Amino acid sequence: MDKLEPNLLLASKTKQQIDDFIEHPYHGLLIIGAKGSGKTSILDYLATRLLNIEPNKLASYPHLLRLTIEGPTNSIGIDTVHQLDRFFGRVVSQPKNQQNQITRVVIIDDAEYLSLDAQNALLKNLEEPPQDSVFLLSSTNSTKLLPTLLSRVRTIRLANPTQDDITSYLMPLVNNPKVIKQAINMSGGVPGLAIAIALNQNDHSLIKASITAKQILSSDTYAKLLLVNSLAKDPKFVTEVLFLIQQMARLGLETAEAKQSTHWQKVLNTAYLTEQLLSQNSNPKLTLTNMMLHL
To answer: How far apart are CA 108 and CA 65, in angstroms?
Structure first.
């Protein structure tokens, strides 16, 4: 890959799939991967390549539209998707990129947060895609997307790199094995987050969740219980914290001695059960309190 390759830590199979898509673009692509796996960076990279523009011009580029979560509903609603009508109504002034003829790109991060109405509205665009345009979507949970929508896009699933892969990637940048190991442990082995922690990039979306997850796992019961009220008020943040606790537990199981394996298995089971109960609309405070008492 070209200019953005140093920012992407990808398996060779994934690199090939992305290269193939750039060479022969389709009207819709869905990147599926865990939180912190670098999906947003990949979508941005694809957009710059397809539009043939420099990365620093992406945010202000008039023929790129990014649809994101808005408002207190914590979703991407139909009004947001209706922005597509105005977007595709604009005249494209610059000549087409001779390589692939793409002139407009729509990016939808966290596509699983599209409401049902929004998905149906988007589906109409995917069924009759505007000429010379590409939709780039990402998701951590594609089961929340309509089967009809999934059938209209190509899919690339990201495989997490190993700890050795992350270490090899970071060594030329950090050259401090201790810092790299701490970053991997604090991230639970999530590559994008591990890189952000090692490089002190505090703007990563999972940094705060990582700190809270580490705090929960290292604090006494009283300190854990003090976190319940604030966590119960922020369901999305709780989901991120539980994801990282599970990742840290899995990493612990991979590296722990026999004495610690039982502990990490208990942590993993407790976090998973808490996630399941919260998804079933159980009382957040009671559920989180029970989790803190069992960790």
So the answer is: 9
Domains of the chain: 5-157 (3.40.50.300), 163-294 (no CATH)
Which CA distances in Å does 6 have to 18, 46, 261? Answer: 15, 14, 35
Sort 93 into a burial class: Cβ within 10 Å, 0-12 / 13-18 / 19+. Answer: exposed
Which residues does 113 contact at the CB level (< 8 Å), separation at least 6? 69, 74, 75, 76
Location of structure tokens 């109504």: 89
The CA-based dihedral angle spanning residues 84, 90, 91, 97, taken in that order and rounded to the nearest 10 degrees = -40
The token pair that represents 112 in the structure block: 């699983």
Give this prediction's pTM: 0.72
**What single-letter amino acid sits at 101?**
Q
CA distance 47 to 104: 9
Joined together, the tokens standing for residue 69 give 């979560």
Q: What is the pLDDT of residue 281?
A: 87
The 8 Å CB, 24+ separation contacts for 159-162 are 159/11, 159/13, 159/14, 160/33, 160/34, 160/37, 160/189, 160/190, 160/191, 161/9, 161/10, 161/11, 161/191
CA distance 275 to 199: 30
Give me the sheet containing 133-139, strands edge to edge. Answer: 64-67, 104-108, 133-139, 28-32, 154-157
Q: What is the pLDDT of residues 193-202, one digit of tens each?
A: 888 899 888 8
| CA nearest neighbour of 204 among 85, 41, 10, 13 | 41
Inter-CA distances, 213 with 7, 74, 166, Å: 25, 22, 21
What are the pLDDT digits (tens) for 42-91? 999 999 999 999 989 999 999 999 998 876 667 899 999 999 999 998 87
Residues of the chain with pLDDT under 70: 1-11, 71-73, 93-100, 258
Furthest-apart CA atoms within the chain: distance in Å: 65
